[in-house]
């Protein structure tokens, strides 16, 4: 069991959760500037975590 793959999976799940939360904020946005700032923050962090997790999973070699 590779620790890098586990960490990559954790980052991917965290990124997906953050992107889903950003989508929920977008759907329920009444138009305030505070909601738009949090939408941008959660969206960017979710995208960074998701991309980092996927690339960490893809680049880690399986060693049996």
Quick synopsis:
The protein is an all-alpha fold. It has one domain (3-59). Helix content is 81%, strand content 0%.
Could you walk me through the main structural features you see in this protein, from its secondary elements to its overall organization?
By secondary structure, the chain is an all-alpha fold. The protein has one domain (3-59). The protein is 81% helix and 0% strand. The protein is built from 2 helices and no strands. Helix 1 packs antiparallel against helix 2 (33-59). The longest helix has 27 residues, at 33-59. The radius of gyration is 15 Å and the shape is rod-shaped.
Features:
rod-shaped; 64 residues; mainly alpha; 2 helices
Layout of helices and strands:
Layout lengths: L2 H25 L5 H27 L5
């Amino acid at each position: 069991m590779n620790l890098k793959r586990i960490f990559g999976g954790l980052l991917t799940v965290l990124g997906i959760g953050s992107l889903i939360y950003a989508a929920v904020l977008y759907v329920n946005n009444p138009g305030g500037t505070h909601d738009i700032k949090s939408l941008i923050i959660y969206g960017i962090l979710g995208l960074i975590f998701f991309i980092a997790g996927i690339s960490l999973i893809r680049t880690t070699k399986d060693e049996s």
